Every structure is written in structure tokens, then in C-alpha cells.
Amino acid sequence: MHDAKVTTCAGKQDDGGARVDGATPGTPRLSIIVPLYNEQESVHALYAAIVQAIGEIGASAEVVFVDDGSSDRTVEYARRLAQLDARLRIVKFRRNYGQTPAMAAGIAHAHGEILVTMDGDLQNDPADIPRLIERIDAGYDIVVGWRHRRQDKLFSRKIPSRIANWLIGKVTGVAIRDNGCSLKAFRASLIKRIPLYAEMHRFIPAMAAMAGPRIAEIKVRHHPRRYGRSKYGLSRIYKVLLDMMVIKTVSTFASQPLRWFTLLALPLLLLALPALAHTVIALTTGAFGMSLPIAGTAVIFLASAAILVLSGALAELTYSRGDLRDRDFLSLTQRVEPGRCTDSRVPT
Questions:
Q1: Residue 307, phi-psi category: left (phi > 0), alpha (psi -120 to 50), beta (remainder)
Q2: Residue 17: its pLDDT value, please?
Q3: CA torsion 318→324→329→330, rounded to 10°?
Q4: Using N-to-C axis directions, what is the helix angle for 43-57 and 74-84, rounded to 10°?
Q5: pLDDT at 181
Q6: Phi and psi for 161 in degrees, rounded to 5?
Q7: Averaged pLDDT score across all residues of the chain
Q8: Where are the domains of the chain?
């Protein structure tokens, strides 16, 4: 058990820019969640652009900055803004966990009816948020941004992304042009029920597809990176491929794990049967000598098939009797800091 330090604050900014203590905002309709990792140059410009977008929407809103263990002054700058605006809250990890855990932490701590996620490097444009909200208000459950004029390197970012999006669409059956775009809007009642881990944030539409949501995709702006460098590259491709296999398995066989493990065991069983027949005939008739390699192969394949089937039976029992969803996974070692005031200890 670890303790996550939770700090709550009441403070807001009046029309003159002064900080007013003692006011607490009500439950917002909109929550904007932004993971940050070493983005000190972007924080102020990002906050200003988000506030402008909120003003255009005209609805109650909050902003959740999630610091993913930054080693620069990102948290310091964000804290200064949070002292002036009660709508801004900060979730801080003690070390770097990655983009998906950061998003999941923001989603867990968001209070809005509609949740919007976006990157913190100013490549996503907050000015597109009102258009996302319009589609949610039109009856959609998930609205995905499509960077149709993506401002990234061709060979290291664009081409791998297009291949990955094609593969994801074929494997999961959810054809999204740009799964990697972080600018998305969700109904909180849906997204808060989807478990996120590893690199799963780009598979949210595919994960949610099991619940039959209405999904829309709209063109959004994409700007060149203004500060720093990209935190992601070709090294994450193998993670995406592995996660894609997990999504396919979960979406197809989550409620019937025994069937999935049995299908995996069938090839091993088919390979084991000829070797087993050869060994039995050799032992019973003596027509030819028994081959130890063939007998060993039969034993190994049969044992492997049996282990898979038993694993499927155990998974079936676990699914029917237990809760597989680790809802508290991302409470980890995070610290929530919406300004200053009162501290409390929250067991995780």
C-alpha cells in the first residue's frame, strides 16, 4: 500500500486577473485533460489557448494537467496558473509512467460530463474543442480527431502511423483514420469504464466498440512542434503491435477465454497426435524401434496443449467469479495538486 498526496484548493480568477480565495467551482460539464512531460515552454501558451476555447463553448469547464514525472519546470509553471484559476487542477506523478497512464489518471480525476483529451506540446489545437463538443451534443459517444494535414516527419511518423492505422482497422474492425491523435472527446459515462494501460490510449475507440458506442471522426488542425522534441518515435511500434493483439483477444474472447485457449491448443494437439501414434505403435507391436526424439516431441506438445486448456479453464473461472478490471491501477504514486489549501491522505 502506498499513499498518494491529494491537495485541494479553492481559488479563482476574477475579471481583473486577481486571485479570489474561498470559491469552489461546481461540477463542470466539460473536462479537458492534458498529459505533460517536460513541456515548460508550452504550458502558458497551452493554458491560454484552452481558456479561449472554453470561452467560446460557454459551458462550465475544468482543465486537468497531468504531469508525467517532468524533470524541468513544467509543474512549477502549472502550479502558478492553478493558483490563479480554480478551474485548473494538477495531477502529478512522482516519476515518468507514460502517456496512457497519464491520460488514465486525468480521466479518473476529471469531474465533467464530457471529457476531452489532447497533447500538451501545442501540436493539437484547442480551438478544435468546440467542434468536438458539437458532435457529442449531436448524439455521438466518442469523437476522434483526424490530423488530415499532419505536421510531422514523413518516414519516422507519418508512414508508420498510416500502416498502423490500417492494421488496427483490419484487426479490430474499427476503421479510424488517425488512432494516434490524442485530441478526442468522450462521454464520461463511457470512458471511465474502459481500463487503460500500456499504450492503450490510441485503442480507446476499439476498446469501447464492445459497448456499441456511436463514434464520429472529424478533421482537426495539427501544428509543427514549437518547443522541445518529440517524446515518441519508432521504438513504440512493437508496443503498438503487442497492444493490438491484446485488443483483438479482449474484444473477441474476453467473455469466452476457454474457447480462445482451446483454439491456441489445437495446433499443438494436431502436431502431438502423429508423434504419439508412432510411439504407441512402436511400443505395442515392436514392428520398429521407438524413437526417443519423436516420443519426447509428443510429450512436449501434449503437455503444452494441456497447459493451454487448463489456463483457459482457469481464466473462464476467474471471469465468471471475479472482477478483472483493475480500477485503481493508476492511483500508483500520483499526487493531485489543484493549487494550495488542505491536504489529505488517500490510500492506494
A1: alpha
A2: 33
A3: 170
A4: 40
A5: 87
A6: -65, -45
A7: 78
A8: 3-253+327-347, 257-321
Report, as ranges of residue numbers, the positions in the chain whose pLDDT lies below 50. 1-24, 324-334, 338-348
DSSP-H helix ranges across the chain: 43-57, 74-84, 99-109, 129-137, 159-172, 188-191, 204-208, 237-253, 257-285, 292-321
Say what the pLDDT of residue 27 is.
Answer: 83
User: At 55, is the secondary structure helix, strand, or coil?
Assistant: helix
> Which CATH fold topology does 3-253+327-347 show?
Spore Coat Polysaccharide Biosynthesis Protein SpsA; Chain A (3.90.550)
- Count CA atoms within 13 Å of residue 260 on its CB side: 17
pLDDT tens, position by position, 222-263: 888 877 666 555 556 667 777 777 777 766 676 678 888 898
Give me 331's grid cell. 492511483
- Alpha-carbon distance of 119 to 186, in angstroms, equals 15
Half-sphere exposure of 40 (CA within 13 A, CB side): 10
Please give the full DSSP string across 219-247, using - where no structure is assigned.
Answer: E--B----SS--S--GGGHHHHHHHHHHH
**The C-alpha cell that represents 78 in the structure block:** 502549472
At residue 11, the 3 state secondary structure works out as strand
Radius of gyration of the chain (CA): 25
> What pLDDT is stored for residue 157 in this prediction?
63
Q: Provide the pLDDT for residue 88.
A: 95
What confidence score (pLDDT) does residue 111 get? Answer: 94
